[in-house]
Design the sequence.
């Protein structure tokens, strides 16, 4: 797992999304400048419990591809599925997908050159505060009870949900 982490970068941003298709095209153009296998996945940072949650889901997605147990054909989408602990792509994207307007963005990069960060910094405003968990929001979208939160930290609870997706598959 440590080898996997060396190739994964998790970045926080705030940004104004005027047109989702244009943003995705910009990101794809960025990937096209590079190498095969580079993954850049943009996520709604409000729907993640923190960096550790994102890293865990990302590693689970990579391992699912390595085992041939992936639920999506695209690693970026598999990352969404794993982080959201959803089996359906549409539900995962509803939770973690981009929307137009001002938003907190988590970007996962796998096997990408470091200079991509500079280009992402030109597109969005770097801001790691997006990884501070919005507990009421997370409770509502992941249907988490107060009782569950009494015994376990939100980020660990979301990691458990991600892990249970593997067991349930």
Sequence:
């Amino acid at each position: 797992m440590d080898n996997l982490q060396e190739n994964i970068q998790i970045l926080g941003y705030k940004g104004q999304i005027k047109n989702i298709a244009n943003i995705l095209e910009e990101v794809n153009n960025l990937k096209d400048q590079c190498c095969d296998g580079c993954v850049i996945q943009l996520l709604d940072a409000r729907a993640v419990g923190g960096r550790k949650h994102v890293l865990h889901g990302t590693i689970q997605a990579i391992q699912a591809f390595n085992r041939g147990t992936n639920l999506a054909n695209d690693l970026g989408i598999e990352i969404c599925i794993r982080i959201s602990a959803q089996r359906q792509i549409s539900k995962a994207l509803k939770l973690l997908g981009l929307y137009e307007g001002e938003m907190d963005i988590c970007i996962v990069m796998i096997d990408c050159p470091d200079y991509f960060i500079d280009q992402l910094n030109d597109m969005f405003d770097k801001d790691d505060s997006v990884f501070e968990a919005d507990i009421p929001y997370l409770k509502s979208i992941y249907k988490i009870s107060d009782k569950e939160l009494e015994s376990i930290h939100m980020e660990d609870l979301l990691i458990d949900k991600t892990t249970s997706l593997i067991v349930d598959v």
